[in-house]
TrEMBL record:
<feature type="transmembrane region" description="Helical">
    <location>
        <begin position="239"/>
        <end position="256"/>
    </location>
</feature>
<feature type="transmembrane region" description="Helical">
    <location>
        <begin position="276"/>
        <end position="295"/>
    </location>
</feature>
<dbReference type="InterPro" id="IPR003339">
    <property type="entry name" value="ABC/ECF_trnsptr_transmembrane"/>
</dbReference>
<feature type="transmembrane region" description="Helical">
    <location>
        <begin position="139"/>
        <end position="162"/>
    </location>
</feature>
<keyword id="KW-0812">Transmembrane</keyword>
<feature type="transmembrane region" description="Helical">
    <location>
        <begin position="109"/>
        <end position="133"/>
    </location>
</feature>
<feature type="transmembrane region" description="Helical">
    <location>
        <begin position="65"/>
        <end position="84"/>
    </location>
</feature>
<dbReference type="Pfam" id="PF02361">
    <property type="entry name" value="CbiQ"/>
</dbReference>
<protein>
    <submittedName>
        <fullName>Energy-coupling factor transport system permease protein</fullName>
    </submittedName>
</protein>
<feature type="transmembrane region" description="Helical">
    <location>
        <begin position="20"/>
        <end position="53"/>
    </location>
</feature>
<keyword id="KW-1133">Transmembrane helix</keyword>
<dbReference type="GO" id="GO:0005886">
    <property type="term" value="C:plasma membrane"/>
</dbReference>
<keyword id="KW-0472">Membrane</keyword>
Length: 309
């Protein structure tokens, strides 16, 4: 179950980008999710992320992220109307509550809570896409030349949990082959079975730590300035994606300057679509952000494009 939340190499096109390209692309998505207030723009980003996650074969992992996101979404939608009283359109007059006053719920407060919850889902989906699209070791390798020791500590820390999950699953399977049934018996009996499981996991982790230390010593770690070798190359696909990301950011900033992407919730909710320019700016931003999707489809169906990117 936990393995779905971590990066797995699947040989997909979206996993073949340079790590710097992916970081820039996801950073642009994150910036847009934070600066956009318009519900239509946030919904478009959410749908784009859904297509990207589907393209990277991560819908199962995304489901786990969405479960936590929907719970937080419901909390925000329930708490926000009770706290904010700035809306003019009252849909429910509640009783007076100590320290909170009269609980009048406005349509604008509900609307703002829904938009904020949608923004939260977009941000969660961005981090889910990061886990599925890029190998964390390749990201840390970008900074290994300037901060080698810090990168090593971060690498060991980030791989600790997924490694322990895999070891725990392997140890459990071995114990089951030996006849141990973890689902039967009383609570105390099952606790004893799991305690033996965790004892083996602890010993395995200590042995792994010793092997890492011996490997570092054999490679003369800390004896002098380290060398850096990287196989990551900038290819045409990276240039296209970087260009699309920067153009999308420029188009979004230009649109925000003229009010496209902004939305007024209080004291009265604005129109969802003021004019055609609202949709035109949204289409331009989405087009540039869809460059990785377009390249992925071309890579799968066009041999000429596949040979060029």
């Amino acid at each position: 179950m936990f393995d779905r939340l971590f990066y797995r190499e699947k040989g997909l096109f979206l996993q073949s980008f340079h790590p710097a390209t992916v970081l820039v692309y996801l950073l642009v998505l994150l910036i847009l999710s934070l600066i956009y207030d318009h519900p239509l723009y946030l919904l478009a980003l959410f749908l784009l992320l859904a297509l990207l996650i589907r393209e990277v074969d991560g819908l199962d992992a995304w489901e786990g992220f969405l479960k936590a996101g929907v719970f937080l979404m419901l909390v925000v939608m329930m708490v926000n109307p009770l706290v904010i009283r700035a809306g003019k359109t009252i849909i429910w007059h509640g009783p007076a509550v100590p320290f909170l006053g009269k609980l009048d719920i406005s349509m604008e407060a509900v609307y703002f809570g829904a938009a904020s919850s949608l923004r939260l889902l977009v941000i969660i989906s961005i981090f889910c896409l990061y886990n599925l699209m890029i190998n964390p070791d390749r990201v840390l390798n970008l900074f290994s030349g300037v901060a080698g020791k810090s990168v090593l500590v971060i690498t060991l820390a980030t791989r600790l949990f997924p490694t322990m999950v895999r070891d725990l699953q392997r140890i459990r399977e071995v114990q089951q082959l030996r006849g141990v049934d973890f689902d039967t018996g009383s609570l105390w009996q099952r606790a004893k079975k799991y305690s033996g499981l965790y004892n083996v996991l602890l010993l395995s982790s200590l042995e792994g730590a010793m092997e890492i230390a011996e490997s570092m010593q054999a490679r003369a770690f800390g004896s002098g300035k380290r060398s850096v070798y990287s196989r990551n190359m900038i290819r045409p696909r990276d240039l296209f994606c970087l260009g699309g990301s920067l153009l999308a950011l420029l188009a979004a900033v230009w649109g925000l300057r003229y009010g496209y992407g902004r939305y007024t919730f209080y004291p009265e909710a604005d129109f969802l679509i003021k004019d055609g320019a609202t949709l035109v700016v949204l289409f331009i931003v989405l087009f540039y952000l869809s460059v990785p999707l377009l390249l992925s489809e071309g890579w799968k169906h066009c041999r000429f494009l596949k040979s060029k990117i």
